[in-house]
């Protein structure tokens, strides 16, 4: 099918491809472009260094909650993981190695926070407004901001009146010494599971405020023997086999058990019964505390965690689990609805993040596309939809590393590899056709989204067990657009075989301009489809 030819004025942008974010997603997208021969791209990073979540999260105990062998790119294996579950510092070091190996640092602009994305139909490019002033123009934009954009604002009355130290799990202050202090932790999600045992070892008193308990499973966190590391270095195929096995195991637990719950509901229910009867009972001595820590929703309704120390921490005499709702933060501590105020020296917030699909993200940093399309309005007024979790009609030349129904497999690396392959295919096809504007068509988007919703209709998340989970998997429409309900193998095949004509391609009339399309390679772009 020939690309559409229509009159238009096309300006030369500052860069052919702008990637927003230099975390794991942005780096992975940059690597995919480099490997495909593209060099005219930039990574726009609001912070002063690469790393994303692994740069921002430095709280005590931070690390991956899936096996490290699964938490790496298939084309860049790390034989040096020191433990089954790698600590955060090793993940950060892995990203630094990748940035150097693929020469990505010269593509990064630090201190460049994009506060607005606006499509210029006349110039046929994106105008990206930078915080503090200035603008970056790009032919194509890839949003690589990840699933967790910013910490949720603290909506507890009086939070701004507290006179002690305030720390957030994602904004940790290593200079704040909590030894011998009275500490309150608000939140019991995945970060708190890692953080609470470390704080308990230092604080004089630790109060943990829990709204919804979290499923916590045993963590087989063994040290990797040096001999095994040497084997991985000498025989990468052995490590790749281990990676594939570990990745499939994570996907089986986190994805298959959820999506195919209707076929075998006894799997998750049986696992939950085992955790209650054996693991929780062996970890927590006090029956009342154990009941409070044990979820009443089904296993998998929200992301579970792993730890050998979190549950046991509540056996310590100076650690208290508080399940009464917080009424307000006072200048000296925390007051609960029962009228009791607990005085503390430090407040630790582990209250979670706004998901990438939260419309509030795009009210703060608007994304405005073709013919008045506004992403915040679209997400607010309509059920979320996408094509392959990557593209949305109304946003020409715009791709997302994590769009609606976009989570692939059990680890983020699988998603990044799959999504970046999709984006590179579209960009390469646009260059082949001599097109400078591409946009996914509404029909394929509607059909693909409908298939994803149908597949999720029988998932664990549709079961009554999840009603009390308070899970971020559910959006404000009541949908669960977080997960792509296919296997990672199916997603990889789709990224390599989806019909390229599911996108519309537009060629500018000006021959001088069309010859400049796709400046990522020195050769002229072809003008035929």
TrEMBL record:
Residues 518-529 have a biased composition (Basic and acidic residues). Its EC number is 1.14.13.84. The gene is hapE_2. InterPro entries: FAD-bind_Monooxygenase_sf, FAD/NAD-bd_sf. Pfam families: Pyr_redox_3. Residues 509-529 are annotated as: Disordered. This is 4-hydroxyacetophenone monooxygenase. The keyword Oxidoreductase applies. GO terms for molecular function: 4-hydroxyacetophenone monooxygenase activity. The keyword DNA-binding does not apply. The lineage of its organism: Bacteria, Bacillati, Actinomycetota, Actinomycetes, Streptosporangiales. Keywords: Monooxygenase, Oxidoreductase. SUPFAM superfamilies: FAD/NAD(P)-binding domain.
């Amino acid at each position: 099918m020939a690309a559409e030819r229509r009159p238009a004025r096309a300006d030369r942008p500052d860069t052919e491809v702008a990637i927003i974010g230099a975390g794991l997603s942005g780096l992975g997208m940059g690597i995919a472009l480099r490997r495909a021969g593209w060099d005219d791209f930039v990574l726009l990073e609001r912070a002063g260094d690469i790393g994303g979540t692994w740069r921002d999260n430095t709280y005590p105990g931070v690390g991956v909650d899936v096996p490290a062998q699964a938490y790496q790119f298939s084309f860049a294996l790390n034989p040096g993981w020191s433990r089954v579950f790698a600590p955060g510092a090793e993940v950060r070091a892995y990203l630094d190695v990748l940035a150097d190996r693929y020469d990505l640092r010269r593509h990064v602009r630090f201190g460049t926070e994009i506060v607005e994305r606006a499509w210029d139909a006349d110039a046929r490019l994106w105008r990206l407004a930078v915080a503090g002033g200035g603008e970056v123009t790009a032919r194509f934009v890839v949003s690589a901001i990840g699933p967790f954009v910013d910490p949720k604002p603290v909506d507890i009355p009086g939070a701004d009146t507290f006179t002690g130290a305030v720390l957030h799990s994602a904004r940790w202050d290593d200079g704040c010494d909590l030894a011998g202090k009275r500490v309150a932790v608000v939140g019991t999600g995945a970060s708190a599971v890692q953080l609470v045992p470390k704080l308990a070892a230092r604080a004089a008193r630790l109060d943990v405020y829990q709204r919804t308990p979290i499923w916590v499973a045993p963590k087989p966190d063994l040290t990797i023997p040096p001999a095994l590391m040497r084997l991985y270095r000498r025989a990468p195929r052995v490590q790749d086999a281990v990676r594939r096995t570990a990745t499939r195991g994570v996907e089986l637990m986190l994805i298959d058990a959820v999506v195919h719950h209707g076929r075998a509901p006894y799997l998750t229910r049986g696992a939950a019964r085992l955790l209650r009867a054996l693991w929780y009972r062996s970890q927590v001595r006090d029956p009342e505390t154990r009941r409070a820590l044990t979820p009443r929703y089904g296993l998998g309704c929200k992301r579970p965690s792993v730890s050998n120390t979190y549950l046991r921490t509540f056996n310590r005499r100076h650690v208290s689990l508080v399940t009464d709702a917080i009424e307000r933060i006072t200048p000296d501590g925390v007051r609960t609805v029962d009228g009791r105020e607990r005085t503390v020296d430090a407040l630790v917030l582990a209250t979670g993040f706004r998901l990438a699909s939260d419309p509030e993200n795009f009210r703060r940093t608007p994304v405005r596309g073709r013919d008045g399309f506004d992403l915040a309005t679209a997400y607010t007024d309509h059920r979320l939809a996408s094509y392959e979790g990557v593209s949305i009609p109304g946003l020409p030349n715009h791709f997302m590393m994590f769009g609606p129904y976009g989570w692939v497999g059990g680890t983020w690396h699988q998603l990044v590899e799959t999504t970046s392959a999709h984006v590179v295919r579209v960009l390469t096809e646009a260059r082949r056709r001599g097109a400078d504007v591409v946009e996914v068509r509404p029909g394929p988007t509607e059909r693909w989204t409908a298939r994803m919703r149908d597949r999720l209709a029988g998932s664990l998340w549709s079961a009554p067990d999840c009603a009390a989970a308070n899970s971020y998997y559910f959006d404000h429409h009541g949908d669960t657009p977080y997960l792509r309900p296919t296997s990672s193998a199916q997603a990889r095949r789709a990224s390599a075989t989806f019909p390229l004509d599911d996108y519309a391609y537009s060629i500018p009339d000006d021959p001088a301009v069309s010859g400049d399309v796709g400046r990522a390679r020195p050769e002229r772009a072809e003008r035929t489809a």
